[in-house]
Amino acid sequence: MTTSRLQPKDSHSPMRRFWRHPLLAPFNQPEAWNRLATAVNPVWSLTEPRARVMRVVDEAPGVKSLWLKPNARFGDFLPGQHVLLELEINGARHARCFSISNAPRNDGELRLTIKRKDNGLLSTAAHALRAGQVVRLSKAQGDFAPRATAGKLLLLGAGSGITPMMSVLDGLADEGSTRDVMLVQCSRSADDMIFADELLKLPARMPRLRVHPHATASQGRLNAKKIAELVPDWNERETLLCGPDGFMRIVESMYADAGLADRLQSESFGRRAAPVDPHASAHAVTCENAEQLFTVATGQSLLDGAEAAGLSPRFGCRRGICRTCQCRKRSGTVMNLLTGQISGQGDELIQLCISTPQSAVELAL
Amino acid sequence: MIAKTRMDTETLARFEAEIDALRLEVLADIGESDARHIHRMRHIVQGLAIGGRSALMFGIGPISWVGGVIGLSLAKIIENMEVGHNVMHGQYDWMNDPSLHSQTYEWDIVCDGDHWRHSHNVEHHDHTNIIGKDHDFGYGMLRLSDQQRWKKFNLLQPLWYLLLALNFQWGVAVHDIKIGRFVKGRMKKAEFSERMRPFLRKAGRQLFKDYVLFPALAFWQWPRVLLGNLVANGIRNLWTNAIIFCGHFTGNVQTYTMKEVANETRGQWYLRQILGSGNLEGSRLFHLLTGQLSRQIEHHLFPDLPATRYAELAPRVRDICARYGVHYNTGGFWKQYASVLGRLFRYTLPTKRRLGAVQSA
Fold it and tell me: I want to staple A158 with a disulfide (CB 3.0 to 4.6 A). Which of A113, A186, B90, B178 is the partner?
C-alpha cells in the first residue's frame, strides 16, 4: 500500500502544475478537502477510490459476495481484473487483493466474492460488512484475461479461484461470444460450489460454454491425468488458472512439461508465503529497489545485516525509538528484538534496527 | 539538587523489566480508540483553522479578531503538539494511514519535518540531556547546567531566553542546521547551504501562507489577517516554549556527560529519561493542549506509544519510581515554570564546572 496508488497521475498541463504548487497550501491539499467531503458523504473523495457496500450476499458456506458501488475515482475495470480492498480493522488499515467476480455493468456496481479464512483478518472483517458501509479500494489492476479474441478457452478454477473466471465468463456472455469455452471448477462438494446457480444459467447466454463441476470430496483431487481425461483437447486451448497453491503447482508443471507454459496464465494472491524457521542460522533478504540479495543471521538485526552487505540504509538511534530506519516489508516474517513479537507475513512497516528475520524477507529498500 | 539514583546491576535489570512490561501491555491494547482520537484531533485542528482564519478574514470588529486569533492559535498548538509531534514520532504508524505516516508528515510550523525528525527523534530522544550530544539542552544559547562551560554571553541569557521564547518556531527551525558549527568554521560552506535548503524552502512556504496568501485573500481586510496570523504564531511560540522548557529544564532535572553514559544499558537509558525529564499536572484540557508533553517522563520512556496512553501510564511509572527510589519530577505549571526560570538565572553567573561521575553499573 503506497500513497501513489491514491494519488492522481502526474499531469503536465501548466494549469494543473500551478494548482499543485506547494505555495498554494492548504487550498490544494487533497487530504484536507477529502476530510471535508467525507464529513458530508463518506464515499466522496477527490483522490481515493472508495465504494459503498450495496448488499452482502451469501454464496456458499463461508463465502460471501460484496456488491460495491464505487465513486468516480475508481474508473473502469475489465473482466478478470482485481482490486485491493482496504478495511479499517481495530483502527489500522489492512488491504488485500480480490478478483472482481462480475463484468462491468451499467449501474457501475462490482462484486467481490470472499471466502472467509480461519484467522483471516481481512476476510473476517469483510464478512462483517453491512450494506451502507464505505470501504476503500484501489483502481482495478492486473491483466488476467484471455489474450486471444478467438479460439478455444479452458478455465481451470478451484475454490474461490472461480471469482476471476466468473468475471471473464460474464464478460464473454455480455459480448455475445460464441467461443468454445470449457470451465472446470473444483470445490469440496456440490454444496461448496460458488456461483452454482449462475453457472447453470450461463450456457443460455453462451451457447458453446461447457461447465464441469468437480467435487474433490467424492471424486478426489484433480491431477494432470484427470484434467487430460476431462478435457482431451487441453493442449489446444488457451488456459486461465486460479486456485490454491497446490492445485496451481500441479497445473503449472503439467503445462511446463508439455512445453505449453506460454499458453497458461495464472492468478493468485499471497500464495507461497516464505516458510518460517526460527532455528535456521540465516535468512535471505531481498531489496526491492537495490535489487540486492544478502543474508542476515537469525538474531542479527536487518540493519546490521544490510550494512554488513555493503548497503547503507538510513538509521538514527539503533535502539528502536526514532523510526529513521523504518522500512516497508513486502513479505516474510520478522521478530521484534525488543518485544519478541512475531510479525505477519505480508506488507507492513518494520524498524530495521530491531527486526530479525524468521523467514526469507523482501524489503522495499 | 537531588542526587542521581544509582542501582546495582540486578536491581537495574528488574527496573528495566518492569518498564519493558508496561510498554508491552499498552502496545497490545492499541487500537480503534487511539485511531479515533487522532482522527478527532485532526478534525478539531481543521475546524479551528477554518473558523479562526475565516473570522480573521471576513470578521468585523475587534471581537471577531480576538476570536480568530484564539481559534488559529489553538489550531496551530494542537496541530504542532497533539498531531504533528506525536505523528512524527511514529505513534500512529501502525494505522497504515499514509497521511499519518511518521516519515512523511509535514506540520504547520517553519521547522522542516526532516530536520525535526533528526534533531528531535534521533538526537534529543536518544541522547536526552547528554551535554554536547542533545542539542536541545540549552538550544546552543542557554547555560542550564554546571556541566556546561560559562561564557560572557551567558550573563544576558534571560534576554536571550525571552527572544527565543517569542520566536520559538524559528529557534526550532534552524536547530538542525547547526549554524554554530559553520560560524566556528567546523562545517564546510557546501554542507551548510545543503542544510539551509530545506529550512529556506519550508520557511518560505510558511511565510507565504501566513503573511501573503491569506492576507491577500481578505482584500482590504489584509492588515487584520496579517496581524492576527503574527499574533497566533506568537502565542503558539510562547506556549510550546513554556511547555517544552518545563519538560527538561526544571531545577531537579539531571544532565549527563558522554563519559557517564558510555556502555549504557536499556535500564540506564530508561533511568536517564526519567531523571532528565519533568511532568506537569493539570486538567484533561491542559494535557491535550500540551500534546501530552505534560507527561514528559512517560513520553521519553515510550516516545512511540500513542500519547493519550501516557495518562494511564503515569501513575504506574510513578509507582515503579517510588519502589526503586527514583525521583519523579512533577508539579503544577507555575511551580515548574518558576523552577525553569530559577535555573535560567542561576547559571547566568559563572559556577565551577562540574564533571560528571561515571554512572555506576
Answer: A186
B238 CA: distance to closest CA in chain A (Å): 24
In a domain, B319, yes or no: yes
**Which residues of A fall within a CB distance of 8 Å from B31?**
90-92
Q: Where are the domains of chain A?
A: 3-137, 153-267, 282-363
Q: For domain A153-267, give the fold.
A: Rossmann fold (3.40.50)
Phi and psi of B290, rounded to 5°?
-95, 5
User: Does residue B96 sit at the A interface (CB-CB below 8 Å)?
Assistant: yes
Q: What is the pLDDT of residues A18-32, one digit of tens each?
A: 888 889 989 999 889
What span, in angstroms and rounded, lies between the C-alpha atoms of A363 and A283?
A: 13
In a domain, B351, yes or no: no
Same fold, A3-137 and A153-267: no
Which structural domain, as residue segments, surrounds residue B131? 9-346
Chain B residues in contact with A85 by the CB 8 A cut-off are: none
Question: What average pLDDT does this structure show over A111-118?
Answer: 94
Asked if B351 reaches chain A (Cβ–Cβ under 8 Å), the answer is no
DSSP assignment of B17-41 equals HHHHHHHHHHHHH-SHHHHHHHHHH
Q: Between helices B157-166 and B333-346, what is the axis angle to 10°?
A: 140
Which tens digit of pLDDT belongs to each residue from B42-94?
999 999 999 999 999 999 999 999 999 999 999 999 999 999 999 999 999 99
Instruction: Judge whether B31 is closer than 8 Å to chain A, CB to CB.
Output: yes
Return the pLDDT at A2.
37
Asked if the Cβ–Cβ distance from A321 to B103 is below 8 Å, we say no
Give residue A39's region: left, alpha or beta (phi > 0; psi -120 to 50).
alpha
pLDDT tens, B141-153? 899 998 888 999 9
Put simply, the answer to whether B33 touches A348 (Cβ < 8 Å) is: no
Please tell me the predicted confidence (pLDDT) of residue A10: 56
Chain B residues with CB-CB distance to A92 below 8 A: 31, 35, 94-96
Cα–Cα separations (whole angstroms), residue A331 to A122, A165, A327 = 17, 27, 12
Q: Give SS3 for A84.
A: strand
Tell whether B352 is covered by a domain: no
pTM of the predicted structure, to 2 decimals: 0.90
Q: Cβ of A92 and B31 within 8 Å?
A: yes
* CA distance to partner chain A, nearest, from residue B171 (Å): 21
Which range has the worst mean pLDDT, A2-11, A84-93, A265-274, B316-325?
A2-11
Q: Does B306 touch chain A (CB under 8 A)?
A: no
Question: Is B65 among the domain residues?
Answer: yes
Could you list the beta-strand ranges (E) of chain A. 50-60, 63-70, 82-89, 92-99, 110-115, 134-137, 153-158, 181-187, 209-215, 238-242, 264-267, 282-287, 292-297, 326-331, 334-336, 348-351, 355-357, 361-363
Instruction: Provide the b/e sequence for A153-190 (b: ≥16 CB within 10 Å).
Output: bbbbbbbbbbbbbbbbbbbbbeeebebbbbbbbbbeee
- Note whether A231 and A155 are within 8 A (CB): no
Tens digits of residue pLDDT in B304-358:
999 999 999 999 999 999 999 999 999 999 999 999 999 999 999 988 766 654 4
Residue A12 contacts by C-beta under 8 Å, 6 or more apart in sequence? none
Domain A3-137: CATH superfamily, name plus number: Translation factors (2.40.30.10)
The CATH T-level fold of domain A282-363 is Ubiquitin-like (UB roll) (3.10.20)
Q: How many domains does chain B have?
A: 1
- Mean pLDDT (chain A, rounded): 91
CA atoms within 13 A on the CB side of B206: 21
Nearest CA in chain A to B203: A23
Note whether B209 contacts A25, CB cutoff 8 Å.
yes
Which residues on neighbouring strands pair with residue A36, listed in sequence order? none
